[in-house]
Specification:
By secondary structure, the chain is mostly beta strands. It is built from two helices and 24 strands.
Length: 277
């Protein structure tokens, strides 16, 4: 078992004007999070979120150590959501209690958890963890228990179904929101209209894509947009000041995770596409 940590510092909106493609990707992209037998964790300075990909092989992978976040245990002052995005079931054991996750299930891990182990060959786990100031119990949220919301317009190639998992309407948390979005067949755009939410950051994780396909992920201030070409198994940080939207060259899905001052999913500032630059 191998566990690695890397760090992303982010940048101000003024800085990205002069960033090369490589510089932009090094600050906002989290590539190749999945590797067999490894836990790859990223500590971001964007609202202190931790993003990780964990792929157990023939032995469980422990992620309970908190050394990299300055505490005895990773979840000592944090909460988290762990999604199984693989094609096989997996198990997340929290302080001795085993939770069995089918594909597209998510477990909420509450503040104070100490020993967290992930197991199951063929399971591919994805983690979002953020600082928390309240206790909520650990809970498995199955795909069937998530709340689906269909939005968008087929004629504009942006029809999609968003599933809420960690959300006040489904499973409460302190500040973390987490869910999965699937564009409808023939639709390529996500998160339309593009928008910002000044009081919350967001992390995307793209998956269920072929090796040949890519998502063109757009970010930046509305009057100065940039893009990154994103493959499967790659995470993207979206600071509160940045728009976020993407278009795929083929079928794809993505996990969205948010944290900030509130959990009001609808609190956003839409930007008309005609006003983007």
């Amino acid at each position: 078992m191998t566990t690695t940590w890397t760090t992303r510092y982010g940048a101000s909106p003024a800085q990205i004007d002069g960033m090369s493609t490589d510089a932009l990707r090094s600050e906002f992209l989290m590539p190749a999070l999945w590797a067999n037998g490894e836990a790859r964790l990223v500590y971001t300075h964007v609202d202190r979120m931790v993003v990780a990909g964990i792929c157990p092989d023939d032995a469980p992978i422990q992620i309970g150590d908190g050394t990299e976040v300055g505490t005895d245990h990773l979840f000592q002052a944090r909460e988290g959501g762990i999604a199984n995005l693989g094609d096989k079931p997996g198990t997340v054991t929290v302080d001795g209690e085993a939770f069995n996750l089918a594909p597209r299930d998510i477990i909420y891990v509450g503040r104070g958890a100490q020993d967290v182990a992930l197991s199951g060959q063929g399971a591919r786990f994805y983690l979002n963890s953020v600082p928390a100031g309240a206790d909520h119990p650990n809970r498995l949220i199955t795909k069937a228990e998530s709340k689906p919301v269909t939005m968008g317009d087929e004629a504009k190639s942006n029809k999609r179904t968003l599933r809420m998992y960690i959300h006040p309407e489904v499973s409460p948390s302190c500040l973390l929101l987490m869910g999965i979005t699937d564009p409808a067949p023939g639709s390529i755009w996500n998160t339309m209209p593009p928008h910002t939410h000044e009081r919350r950051m967001e992390a995307y994780f793209y998956f269920d894509m072929s090796d040949e396909d890519r998502v063109m992920h757009f970010m930046g201030k509305p009057d100065c947009t940039r893009h990154m070409v994103v493959a499967a198994g790659v995470g993207v940080l979206s600071p509160a000041w940045s728009i976020h939207m993407g278009a795929g060259t083929g079928p794809y899905a993505f996990v969205w995770g948010m944290t900030g001052e509130n959990q009001v999913y609808q609190e956003m500032s839409p930007v008309a596409v005609k006003d983007l630059k």
